[in-house]
Design a protein that fits this description.
302 residues; alpha+beta; Pseudouridine synthase; Archaeosine Trna-guanine Transglycosylase, Chain: A, domain 4; 3 domains; 8-stranded mixed β-sheet; elongated
Length: 302
């Protein structure tokens, strides 16, 4: 199939079920190529060994990507107790081995209870956080280790899925910025040993649902028979908790030219803005004086 250099104007969100071995950027570029999309972005990376939901925003949907970075996530993790690695997962070198204590499910659940709510977590060296302008993972690869400040993250729920020593599987619903690798290591320490992640699968990025994910194989098949656009969710699918405002025809023109709309009913705050015919015009903000100020104007046609 021949491709134009710039790609086409295609708009929407595809929930990729990222396979292992792909960096988030590699997965993004693959999906962009399959859709022949001019523009694309994602809403938060997954480690190459990890799998699962990676929302990819095509075209004008990329204007919403930054607004979804604060979304909470749900993961299914499989930890191997008794062995730790330099990266906290299967991609690192073994750094420590120790016997796994005799544990039952009640003991594990009692430790899990200590990780509910707001917790302090020290980010791993193998992360994209920066120290003096350098990503930590680059420093780690160079054999350097720097002090990292603990950060507060939130664990909304933590459930035991399987215990078959030394394999510990758990499901966690957590805030942005939570490192599940570090969570597994901290849990293991409370259990009296060490651990690393063997597998990590992201089930959800709020508000998206697991059943809406598409595999690369399905997208490739859809690209072949030219039905791939049916895999797209609406441009504003990640902002369903934002109120809607519908404008009249004369107001639509003003908004689309970046001009505020006076006397807009609604509570102050961010809103999705629609025109006649229920088509999305963009994102705006209702100010305390009830004027609607355009924030991001969508160009969904042409």
């Amino acid at each position: 199939m021949s491709r134009r250099n710039k790609g086409r104007n295609v708009h929407g969100i595809v929930l990729l079920d990222k396979p292992p071995g792909y960096s988030s950027n590699q997965a993004l570029q693959k999906v962009r190529w399959l859709f022949d999309a001019r523009k694309a972005g994602h809403t938060g990376s997954l480690d190459p060994f990890a799998t699962g939901m990676l929302p990819i925003c095509l075209g004008e949907a990329s204007k919403t990507a930054g607004l979804m970075l604060d979304a909470s996530k749900t993961y299914l993790a499989r930890a191997w107790l008794g062995t730790s690695t330099s990266t906290g997962d299967i991609e690192g070198d073994v750094t420590r081995e120790m016997p796994v204590p005799e544990l039952d499910e009640e003991q594990i659940k009692a430790v899990f209870a200590q990780f509910h709510g707001d917790i302090e977590q020290v980010p791993p060296m193998y992360s994209a956080l920066k120290h003096e302008g350098q990503p930590l993972y680059k420093l780690a690869r160079a054999g350097k280790k720097v002090e990292r400040k603990a950060r507060t993250v939130s664990v909304h729920s933590l459930e035991l899925s399987r215990w078959d020593s030394p394999v510990l599987e758990f499901r966690v619903h957590c805030s942005k910025g939570t490192y599940v690798r570090t969570l597994a290591e901290d849990i293991a320490e409370k259990l009296g040993c060490c651990a690393h992640l063997q597998a990590l699968h992201r089930l959800r990025v709020e508000p998206f649902e697991e059943q809406d994910m598409k595999s690369l194989a399905e997208l490739e098949s859809r690209a072949e028979d030219e039905t791939i656009d049916s895999c797209l969710l609406p441009v504003d699918a990640g902002l369903t908790d934002w109120p809607r405002v519908t404008l009249e025809e004369n107001e639509e023109t003003r908004f689309s030219h970046g001009n505020p709309i006076p006397n807009t009913p609604g509570l102050p705050g961010p809103v999705r803005v629609y025109g006649p015919g229920d088509h999305l015009l963009g994102l705006g903000e209702i100010l305390p004086d009830q004027s609607l100020k355009p924030r991001r104007i969508m160009h969904l046609h042409g």
